[in-house]
Amino acid sequence: MNSINEAKELYGKMVATGLVAGDKATAHLLMRASLREEKPEEALEVFSEAIERGEEPDGLLYSLAIKLTARRLIWQDKVEEAVRLKDEMVSEGIPMNVIAATSLVKGHCKNGDLGSALEMFRKMEKEGPSRTVLRFRF
Fold first, then answer.
1. Is 3 helix (H, G, I), strand (E, B) or coil?
2. Considering the entire predicted model, what is its pTM?
3. Which of 6, 94, 120, 125 is deepest in the core (most CB within 10 A)?
């Protein structure tokens, strides 16, 4: 746990030297590590870098980005960005999962927008988010 920064540094060197192009699994882990360290900006940077490398985001990458964006709502009004990420995920054919949906509902509530939170909840209730189960522990 104390070597998260070392892991990030090593991964950055590997990508920079061309040893690896990067992959979703590593991006997931680095985003979760940044989330654990309460560094949402770093985690979103990992997401952006993965996209720039040509990584095809999956439901987990999008969900983590949405969760991190929604978490930032405490400090900044970023609800539009979180909703945009959700819309992008759905337009790519990736169903909204429980993590993304819950993060958006919580984000709307923290932002004081109970109407949007209820609307998202009703949409989840009607459409039923995918039941992606994620079990990452650090």
1. coil
2. 0.64
3. 120
Tell me how far apart the 2 most distant CA atoms of the chain are, in Å: 49
The answer to whether residue 17 is domain-embedded is: no
Is residue 121 one of the residues assigned to a domain? yes
**β-bridge partners, 130:** 97
Total number of domains constituting the chain: 1
Q: List alpha helices for 75-137, DSSP H.
A: 79-91, 98-110, 114-127
4 within domain boundaries = no
Q: What is the mean pLDDT of residues 89-102?
A: 85
For the chain, percent of residues with pLDDT exceeding 90: 1
How is residue 111 written in tokens?
């932002």
DSSP secondary structure code for residue 95 in this structure:
P
CA dihedral for 128, 48, 67, 75, sign (positive or negative): negative
- The set of residues, in sequence order, having a beta carbon less than 8 Å from that of 106 and lying 6+ positions away, is 70, 117
- Alpha carbon distance 20, 102 (integer Å): 34
Q: What is the pLDDT of residues 40-57, one digit of tens each?
A: 888 888 888 888 888 888
Those residues with Cβ within 8 angstroms of residue 62's Cβ, 6 or more apart along the chain or in another chain:
85, 86, 88, 89, 94, 100
